[in-house]
Amino acid sequence: MKILIIGGGIAGCSAAYYLSRDGHDVSLFERDSVASHASGFALGGITPSFGDSPKDSYDVLSDYSIGLHRDLAEELSGGNTEKLNLLNKASVKLTTEYSYMEHMLKTYESYATDYAKDIRWLSVGELSHVDARISPDVLGGLYVGEAYETDPYKLTLNLWQAAEQCGAKLINRGVTDIVVQGGRVSGLVAGGDEFEADSIVVAAGPWSSSLLLNLGINAPVTPLKGQILRLDAPGPPLKVSLWWDTDYATTKPDGLLWVGTTEEKVGYDDRTTSAARDRIIRSAVEILPYLDDAELVQQTACLRPMTLDRLPIIEAVSEPQGLIIITGGGRNGILLGPSMGLAAANFVAGSEFPVDISAFSLSRFS
Ligand SMILES: Cc1cc2nc3c(=O)[nH]c(=O)nc-3n(C[C@H](O)[C@H](O)[C@H](O)COP(=O)(O)OP(=O)(O)OC[C@H]3O[C@@H](n4cnc5c(N)ncnc54)[C@H](O)[C@@H]3O)c2cc1C
User: Fold this and answer.
1) Which of 332, 335, 336, 339 for mutating ligand 1's site (highest number of atoms within 8 Å of CB)?
2) Which of 61, 176, 185, 245 is most buried, most CB within 10 Å of its CB?
3) Which of the listed residues 284, 307, 330 is the one where a domain comes to its end?
4) Domain containing residue 103: CATH number
5) Which atom of ligand 1 is nearest the CA belonging to 329?
C-alpha cells in the first residue's frame, strides 16, 4: 500500500520504520528536518510509568514500549549495540514532602511485586549510598532498576535511516491539506502538489490538531514547552537519574549533567528564556546543592505534543477511512514513540496490537 506519513519526529520515523519493513511504499513528509523538534532535544529518559495499578493501560503500554526500545537497540545497531546509546540506568524519584512521600509509598506497595521493574523504597540513609550529594532535605525515594536512557536524536535518525534502507522516501515539504474522496483519504497537498495515498499517518506532534481540524476532527493536542540545561558539573557523574516534582537531573554520555525541566503553555514559542534557566537551576540546587558550582554549557527548549488528559492518541479513525493518528506522546513521547509507530503498522495490516490500546482512542474526547 502507498502510505504517506506527516512528521519526522520519533512517532513518524517509528511508523516509517515498521511500515517500510512490512513492505509498504512509504513517503515521509517533514517540513524542517528529521528530529529537528522535540524528538531531537528531549532528555531521553525511558522509565516505567506508575499509575494506580500495574494493570493501568498507560503502564502496560509503557512497559511494552520499553521492550520495543530494547528490541530496536538490537535491530538498528547492526551489531554495534553501543550505537544507539540505550543505557540501563536506574532512576530514583525523590521527594521533600511528607504528603507526597505517603503517595509514593502507596505506589511502592502496589507495584512492589512487579519484580521485573526492580523497585525499592530508599530511606534517607539508603539514598546517601546512592549519592552522598543528595540534599538532607530529601525524605526518601522510589528506586526503579529497570529504567533506561537513550539518545533521542540518534534513535529517531536511526529509525529513519533503517526505513530509508527499506525503500522509504523523505519529502522535505510542509503538508497543508489532507484530501478525502468518498469517505476515504485519497492523498495530501504539500508545496502546492497533490500526492496520492491509500493511507495517511498523522504524526505531526503538537501541529497535528490544525491538520485534523481541516477534516472536522477535533484532536485536542497542544504544545507544552519544556526547557533543559546542560551543565558542566564538578565531581563525579551521577550514577542514576534523579527525578523530583516535574524536574530531573542525570549525567548523559556527553559528560554533561542535564537538568530540567519546565511545563509552559506559551503556544508555539520554542525559544529559551532566562526565567526558565533560573527556575531550573534553583530547583536543581535545592536537591543537589553541589550544583551551585556548575557552569551552564547549553540551554534548549522544545514543544511536547500534549493532550488534555496527558495520554497519547493512537487511532485509526472510522471516517474518513485510511486515516491514522499517532500523537500526544506528551512527557513520554520518546518512550512511547516505537509503540505508536508499530500501532500504525498494525492498523494498516489490520492486525491487533499486542496490548490493549483502546484507552488511547480519540473517542474519549467526544
Ligand atoms: C524538554 C523535554 C524533555 C523531554 N524528555 C523526554 C524524556 O525524557 N522521555 C520521553 O519519553 N519523552 C520526553 N519528552 C517528550 C518527547 O520529546 C515528545 O513527546 C516526542 O518527541 C514527540 O514526538 P513526535 O514525533 O510526536 O513529535 P515531534 O518530535 O514534534 O515531531 C513532529 C514533526 O512533525 C513535523 N511537522 C509538523 N507539522 C507538519 C506539516 N504540516 N508538514 C510536515 N511536517 C510537519 C515537525 O516539523 C516535526 O519535526 C521531552 C520533551 C521535552 C520538551
Assistant:
1) 332
2) 61
3) 307
4) 3.30.9.10
5) 19
- For the question of whether the overall pTM of this predicted structure is more than 0.90, the answer is yes
Quickly state the pLDDT bin for 52 (edges 50, 70, 90). confident
> Are residues 289 and 233 part of one domain?
yes
Q: State which H helix or E strand residue 278 sits in.
A: helix 274-287
Q: What is the mean pLDDT of residues 157-164?
A: 97
Question: Does one domain contain both 143 and 226?
Answer: yes
State the pLDDT confidence band at 82, using cuts at 50, 70 and 90: low
Of 287, 307, 327, which closes a domain?
A: 307
Taking the C-alpha atoms of residue 155 and residue 75, their distance in angstroms, rounded to an integer, is 12
State the distance from the centre of ligand 1 to the C-alpha of 152, rounded, in angstroms. 10
Instruction: Compute, in degrees rounded to 10, the torsion defined by CA atoms 26, 327, 331, 220.
Output: 160
- CA 40 to centroid of ligand 1, rounded, Å: 8
Instruction: Look at residue 231 in the predicted model and tell me its pLDDT.
Output: 98
Contact 139, 101 (CB under 8 A): yes
The three-class DSSP label of residue 144 is: strand
Place of cell 533560573: 278
Domain that holds residue 37: 2-72+152-220+308-365
> Which CATH number belongs to the domain containing residue 315 in this structure?
3.50.50.60
> Distance between CA 86 and CA 88 in Å, rounded?
7
Question: Is the Cβ atom of 338 under 6 angstroms away from ligand 1?
Answer: no
Q: Locate cell 550544583: which residue?
A: 291
C-beta 261 within 6 A of ligand 1: yes
Q: Could you tell me if the CB of 335 is within 6 A of ligand 1?
A: yes
Same domain for 241 and 114: yes
Which tens digit of pLDDT belongs to each residue from 165-201?
999 999 999 999 999 999 999 999 999 999 999 999 9
The number of the ligand 1 atom at minimal distance from the alpha carbon of 7 is 34
Task: Please give the tally of structural domains in the chain.
Answer: 2
